[in-house]
Every structure is written in structure tokens, then in C-alpha cells.
Design goal:
Elements: H1 10-14, H2 18-34, H3 38-45, H4 53-67, E1 70-76, H5 81-88, E2 95-99, H6 102-108, E3 114-118, H7 125-138, E4 147-153, E5 162-169, H8 172-177
Amino acid sequence: EGADAVMLSAESAAGNYPVEAVRTMHNVALSVEGDATYRQVINAFRTYERTSVADAIVSAAREIAESTDIKAICCFTESGTTALKVARERPQVPILALSPSVHTLRRLCLVWGVSCVATGSIDRFKSAVVSAARAIRDLNMGTTEDQIVVTAGVPFNVPGTTNILRVAPCDERLIYRAEAE
């Protein structure tokens, strides 16, 4: 029903089979998420209002990723809010949160579907797209043949400014051939 984590207490903390307990719960979660009706349940619970530009962008990112051959949704985030909003959408592709804030990335490690990458400070969108494409390839989430969705906010490094969505190639040569930004 959209939980980010499942907590085990007795067996995993003090029992004789903690690894097996965690492995079993992991397998149960994977089984539930792989069930044919899982998407229907998630979509039925998607009843929150989208009241901001960021809400619309992350919803569009999910729609694009699920209706095309996108390998991941990459979100640049200062505070973590954009990655949280993308995770709330429960896309069928991985979510990559990129941020210069290690504090933000540590919090996001517990969020459903989110992998985290620390970046330096980024001040241009093209640099952000290149950074996302490299990270996707480095993490073996995609190849130079693939495409990703990138979300960010301009001005950069300011929380709450998510206002850009781009479908981009994972091949940085193609990114640099695009029009100047």
C-alpha cells in the first residue's frame, strides 16, 4: 500500500534466524510488488492532489517513463522533496536522486525505489543532464543507447524550485550536440 519500508523486530533483532527473517520479508515484498494486481492497487491509492509545478513534473516524469523505454528518473534535489514526490508516484523504473547534500542523500536511502548519488554543486542544466547520464551508466542502470528522464530546478541549489523535465540520452556526446543551454 505504498510503504517505503517494512520493520522486523523480534526475530531479526534477537532470534536465531535474523538473516533468514530479513530475506523472507524481502522476498515477500518483491512478490507483492511483482503481482499483476500491484499496479492497480497503487493506482487506486494515487488520490492526492497535485497542486504544484513540482507535483505536475514528477507525475509527468512517471507517465513518460512508463509509456516509453526510459531506464530511470533522475531527480536533482537539494532538500529531497523532489525524490520523495517521484517515489510517491511509484514509477516502474528506478529513481536516482542526485544532490550535493550528503545529509539529504542519507535520508533518501530509506525511500522506496530511490538510489542516491552525491554530486558537486551544479549550476547549469546541461551539466546536470551529463552528470545524471554518467551516474546511470556507472551504476549499470543504462547504457549509451538508453534514455532517462531528468528533473531539476532553476535556479540550482535552491530548495523547492523543481521546474524542468527533460528526456535525455545517456550518451553525453548526444547531450553536447543538443542546442546550447
